[in-house]
Structure formats: structure tokens, C-alpha cells
């Protein structure tokens, strides 16, 4: 798989990002996260509309940040530019639609990554969980992101028991959009990315931010937000058309 900690394959309208530390269950060291941040910048610059995120090998999708590098401290807070939290913010704010192709374990920080991706396809061999309670700690990112993404009782089951759930249960919980045989995982995720990549980049960007933002707004404010977003998209499209005419 090469020496790079992050493998990036940029195609027509979309990209495939592979977390390449299979010997460490694709835990992301600070160096790996730096490579991932560079990859996200490149993907943005190339105008990719969708991004498939998967893990190298067939054992683990991602186990989050590399805990061997230590917990957050006063000198290096959880929001530091080389932190797992900061990396998640970059994905949230990125204009592309992210699709998790979950090929194995998605535990702790890996579960956070699944939640933060806009869509998720799981291999039938994948497993999910937030095991932090078994180590006597709260799942700092997996806990809140799980509470935000799925129903309260399902979130409580994951957070309070530390037990892993299989792909079928993850689908029932709403953790993923679909489950497919492991051999079909990447093909299915790529087909989804290709479908999304055919749409307008500005509309996708605003749709991504819109569905995340409106979920936290009261009803009337959410609808107002949607109307304003549509108006901005139309205005930007009109400006782009005028520019195109001017340079014709």
C-alpha cells in the first residue's frame, strides 16, 4: 500500500481517501492527520464534490487518533491543529460530501469519523462501538457525535455498555445507510460518489451545511435558513453565468 500514511486517489469529480496504517488498525498519528489535512486541501483545490473514506486492509476502518501519543494536555489541548477534533472540524466544513466505506472496526474515534461523514456504507463484516467506558473514561467525541446522530436509547446502549454492534445492528440504529458484502464495499461507495459528483458543487456545499445547521434550529428558523440558502445558490449561479458570458 506504499509508505504514505494517507493514500489519495483523485478521480473525475470525486476522490478516494484511504487511511493507511493497517498494522495500527488505522489509528491516525499526528503525522497521519497532517497528511490527511493536506489531502483534504488538495481535494478541495481539485474541486472534488464527493470523498470516499476507507481504511487499508480488511480488519479496521479506523480506531481514531493514535492514543500512544498521549491524551490532551494544557499545552496541547483537544482542539490543537494536529488533534482528532480539529480534523473532524475540517471534514465538517469541507465543501465535498463525505462517504464512509466502513471495511472493519469503527471504534471510538473511528465511530466519530463514521458519524461525521455525511453518508456511510458498511461491509457486512464491519463492527461499531464506543469502548471508552470500559477504560473508565467518557467517549469525548464518539459520545456526543453518537448522541447527535442516532436515537437516544441506541446512543445510550453504545455509550453505557461499551459493547460492539455488528453491521446489521448499525443499519437498524441508523449508523449507516446500507450494508453490502465486503467484496462489494468499495464499488458501492464509489458508485454513490459518482452519482453525487454529477451535481452542482455550490448546491452540494450549501446542502451539506444546510442539513447540518437546520437540524439544530427551531422549525421556523430552519425553513428560513433553507430559503436563504436557496437564494444564495441562485445568486452565485447567476454571477457565474454572467462571468462566463463576459469571457465568451
Protein described:
This protein is of the alpha/beta class and 248 residues long. It is 46% helix and 17% strand. It has a 6-stranded mixed sheet with strand order 1-2-3-5-7-10, with helices on both faces. The chain is globular and about 60 Å long. The termini are far apart. The relative contact order is 0.12.
How would you sum up this structure in a few lines?
The protein has 248 residues and is an alpha/beta fold.
Structural topology:
Blueprint (H helix, E strand, L loop, with lengths): L5 E5 L3 E6 L10 H16 L4 E6 L4 E3 L21 H10 L3 E6 L2 E3 L1 H8 L2 E5 L3 E3 L12 H8 L2 H10 L3 E2 H7 L4 E3 L4 H13 L3 H14 L4 H29 L1
Parallel strand pairs: 2-3, 3-5, 4-6, 5-7, 6-8, 7-10
Antiparallel strand pairs: 1-2, 8-9
Q: How much of the residues is beta strand, in percent?
A: 15-25%
Termini gap: 45 Å
Total helical elements: 9
- Please state the structural category: alpha/beta
How can the largest sheet be summarized?
6 strands, mixed
Task: Tally the beta strands.
Answer: 10
Helix content: 40-55%
Computed Rg: 19 Å
Q: Give average pLDDT, whole number.
A: 92
The shape, in one word, is globular
- In N-to-C order, the SSE pattern is EEHEEHEEHEEHHEHEHHH
The quaternary organization reads as single chain
Amino acid at each position: 500500500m506504499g509508505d504514505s500514511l494517507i493514500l489519495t486517489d483523485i478521480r473525475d469529480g470525486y476522490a478516494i481517501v484511504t487511511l493507511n496504517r493497517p498494522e495500527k488498525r488505522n489509528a491516525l498519528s499526528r503525522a497521519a492527520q497532517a497528511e490527511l489535512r493536506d489531502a483534504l486541501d488538495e481535494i478541495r483545490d481539485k474541486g472534488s464534490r464527493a470523498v470516499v473514506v476507507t481504511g487499508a486492509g480488511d480488519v479496521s476502518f479506523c480506531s481514531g487518533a493514535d492514543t500512544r501519543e498521549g491524551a490532551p494536555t494544557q499545552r496541547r489541548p483537544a482542539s490543537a491543529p494536529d488533534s482528532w477534533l480539529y480534523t473532524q472540524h475540517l471534514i465538517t466544513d469541507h465543501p465535498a460530501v463525505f462517504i464512509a466505506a466502513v471495511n472493519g472496526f469503527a471504534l471510538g474515534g473511528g465511530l466519530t469519523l463514521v458519524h461525521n461523514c455525511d453518508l456511510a456504507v458498511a461491509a457486512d463484516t464491519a463492527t461499531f462501538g464506543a469502548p471508552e467506558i470500559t477504560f473508565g473514561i467518557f467517549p469525548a467525541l464518539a459520545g456526543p457525535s453518537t448522541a447527535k446522530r442516532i436515537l437516544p436509547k441506541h446512543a445510550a446502549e453504545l455509550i453505557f455498555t461499551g459493547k460492539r454492534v455488528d453491521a446489521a445492528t448499525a443499519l437498524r440504529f441508523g449508523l449507516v445507510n446500507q450494508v453490502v458484502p465486503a467484496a462489494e464495499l468499495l464499488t458501492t461507495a464509489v458508485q454513490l460518489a459518482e452519482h453525487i459528483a454529477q451535481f452542482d458543487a455550490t448546491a452540494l456545499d450549501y446542502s451539506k451545511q444546510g442539513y447540518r445547521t437546520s437540524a439544530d434550529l427551531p422549525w421556523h428558523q430552519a425553513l428560513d435558513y433553507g430559503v436563504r440558502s436557496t437564494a444564495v445558490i441562485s445568486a452565485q449561479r447567476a454571477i457565474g453565468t454572467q462571468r462566463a458570458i463576459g469571457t465568451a
